[in-house]
Design a protein that fits this description.
alpha+beta, Chitinase A, domain 3, 4-stranded antiparallel sheet, 21 strands
């Protein structure tokens, strides 16, 4: 945790769960005529009330003093222009972006998608498919042609013709000729969302309805459904399959069998992997592969062998895949996590998946209902004529006079967006793959996307106005960033570098930093009386602590512990029965332990040197500087507190 994070954690205790309380709003105090209101004071006081440890801070008069001091520092930061620093502006912008995400998310839809995804993850689907390619922005004639193709194939499949043969004959998936459309096992988030949904909604042994994805039209046959096997971590040794031209076609098989015999004779799997495995990406790591789930590797046979192993360190017999001969060793099996454990992971996956379109569509629909907006049809007609067929080839360029299109195209409430903004949007959209034809439909589609983007921007710009809790958190964070930078500049750095001031502060307060009585001693402990007796005998013969441990700790059993150093009275490391006198003690018992001590020196109570208590002195010096600084700020700024208003606030907060 960084110092800045720690500072904010202590100072603000910010939580999105804190909802602004609706209450009367009066001016509580002013700083150079700038008003600060009762509602903010009451809200911050209530939020922090149960979290502050210093009881004095719960006293409203004392809390007002702290609150005024805080606002004075913020005013000083603005006066120094710290708000103009680029790092401050970037950090504030980054924080706002993260905080705003909560207001762009449809909670109900997101939760439903999380639960749907998790429920689907419980099962693995083995499926085959037939694909007829068609671009998602294809012309209607091309789309219809592709649909008729898949429709004819679907009728054949539903009539009982062999699905694999149909895939090999008709599918436009390049791999279909070899695999007959077989996709193996997969689970949620492995396929594009519409394909996944169709697979999970089709019973085992049945063929799906025709579905459309961004690749084209599909039909799917579900061959098997089984419980999710989770993830597995294994190590393997691989000998590559022989090439057709190799003279000895059995060399790989014989080599893997020899390696297997070595393993059975007790040789280490990891050492053999490093020496013989021809998978160079894993051999140096003892053959260990990254954790994987069903459908993540290119070999279903390898996956099946890996998942068939049940106990850690269990080793398979040699087997062959399309890549080579393998021996697999189980490292660990990881079952599917619980919904709570996976919630954040699933939400991240949803954000990167086609599922997120549901959330975006929900927001767009909500904003279109929320705000009044109007398109200037005349201006749109003028702008539409500027978009040419070059757009489809990403060769369209902004008109040379694009900046002159300042007439409003779109009005959202009282905000006007000009034609230049739309033209800039069109320019950027050339990389989006939008290929709607003809041009008239393209410009309509571009405008719809432009409208949704502008509504979203308007919503984002007005979050502080629409959500008081968002405004409150941003205000606190904004001031907190400034205050951190100010404190670092005015207090923390100074307390570390002002050696003369620190020395003077220490001299004035050194009697507050005292050592209690101390001893330089060796403490020996054991749970066994015979061992502690032996330790005592060795100690009397002037044996060193390490020699005592070496003698008495045998066969990997720790019979005795020693601890040497300077110990202060009251230290937890000191047995309570220790005597503060030079010499070797008798054996004494405390709890389950026997002790013997050797005191070499007794040190009297004395003042700590600055180096010995520097951390505490620096902290006290910082508080001293801060208090003096606040007093100086009260002279620099004019503070006026409305006592009558404060009295009413006190009655409301402490009735």
């Amino acid at each position: 945790m960084s110092l800045k994070q720690f500072f904010f954690g202590l100072f603000f205790l910010v939580s999105l769960a804190s909802i602004a309380q609706k209450s009367s709003k009066e001016v509580l105090f002013t700083i150079n005529e700038k008003p600060y209101y009762t509602d903010e004071f009451a809200r911050v006081y209530k939020k922090n009330l149960d979290l502050v440890k210093d009881e004095s801070q719960k006293d409203l008069t004392q809390y007002l003093e702290l609150f005024v001091g805080y606002k004075l520092k913020v005013n000083k930061a603005y006066k120094l222009g710290l708000q103009n620093n680029l790092p401050y502006q970037n950090e504030l912008k980054s924080y706002r972006t993260q905080l705003a995400k909560n207001y762009f998310n449809d909670t109900k839809i997101t939760q439903a998608l999380i639960e749907e995804g998790y429920n689907r993850l419980q099962k693995e689907i083995k499926a085959s498919h037939i694909l007829i390619l068609v671009d998602e922005n294809a012309l209607p004639a091309d789309t219809l042609k592709a649909y008729k193709k898949i429709e004819d194939i679907s009728k054949k499949a539903l009539a009982g013709e062999d699905f694999g043969a149909l895939a090999a004959q008709y599918s436009e998936d390049p791999s279909a000729k070899e695999n007959k459309g077989d996709l193996g096992y997969f689970t949620a988030f492995r396929m594009v969302y519409p394909f996944e949904s169709a697979a999970y909604n089709t019973p085992k042994g049945k063929v799906s309805k025709i579905i459309r994805t961004r690749f084209g039209y599909h039909i799917i046959k579900v061959d098997d459904i089984r419980p999710n096997r989770g993830e597995v971590t294994v190590a393997h040794i691989m000998i590559l399959n022989p090439k057709p031209e190799d003279a000895d076609q059995d060399k790989a098989k014989n080599t893997i069998n020899d390696i297997y015999k070595k393993i059975q004779q007790g040789e280490k799997f990891e050492d053999l992997a490093k020496q013989f495995s021809e998978d160079k990406s894993s051999s140096s790591k003892g053959g260990v592969l990254n954790k994987f789930a069903s459908g993540q590797l290119s070999s279903e046979e390898f996956e099946n062998v890996a998942f068939s192993l049940s106990a850690p360190n269990e080793i398979s017999k040699p087997f062959q895949t399309q890549f080579g001969w393998h021996i697999v060793k189980l490292i660990e099996k990881s079952p599917l996590k619980t919904l709570d454990e996976m919630k954040n992971e699933l939400e991240t996956k949803i954000g990167k998946d086609d599922r997120s379109k549901k959330i975006t569509a929900s927001l767009n629909e909500k904003l279109r209902k929320k705000y009044a907006y109007k398109k200037d049809a005349k201006q749109f007609a003028i702008l539409s004529k500027l978009v040419t067929n070059d757009f489809y080839d990403s060769k369209w360029t902004l008109p040379a006079n694009a900046k002159d299109y300042t007439a409003p195209l779109l009005t959202i409430n009282d905000k006007k967006i000009d034609g230049k903004a739309f033209l800039d949007f069109v320019d950027k959209q050339q990389k989006s793959g939008l290929a709607v034809k003809p041009l008239s439909k393209l410009t309509d589609a571009l405008y719809d996307k432009f409208l949704d983007e502008q509504l979203t921007n308007y919503y984002d710009d007005n979050l502080e106005n629409e959500f008081p809790e968002f405004a409150n958190v941003m205000e606190e964070y904004r001031d907190g960033l400034l205050l951190f930078d100010l404190m670092e500049k005015e207090i923390w750095d100074r307390s570390k570098t002002d050696t003369i001031g620190l020395q003077k502060f220490y001299n004035d307060h050194k009697m507050e930093h005292m050592w209690k009585k101390r001893v330089t001693a060796t403490i020996i402990s054991s749970t066994k009386m015979d061992v502690i007796k032996s330790a005592l005998a060795m100690l009397k013969k002037k044996a060193e602590p390490q020699a005592i441990k070496d003698k008495l700790n045998v066969n990997n059993v720790v019979n005795v512990m020693t601890n040497s150093g300077v110990f202060e009275e009251g230290s937890d490391a000191l047995p309570k029965g220790i005597k503060y006198e030079v010499g070797i003690s008798d054996i004494f018992k405390e709890g389950e332990y026997y002790f013997v001590t050797k005191v070499d020196k007794v040190l009297p109570e004395e003042v700590k040197t600055l180096e010995e208590c520097k951390g505490k002195v620096v902290n006290d010096y910082q508080q001293y500087l801060e208090q003096r600084w606040v007093d100086d700020l009260k002279q620099e700024f004019t503070v006026k507190i409305n006592k009558d208003v404060f009295d009413r606030v006190k009655k409301q907060l402490n009735p």
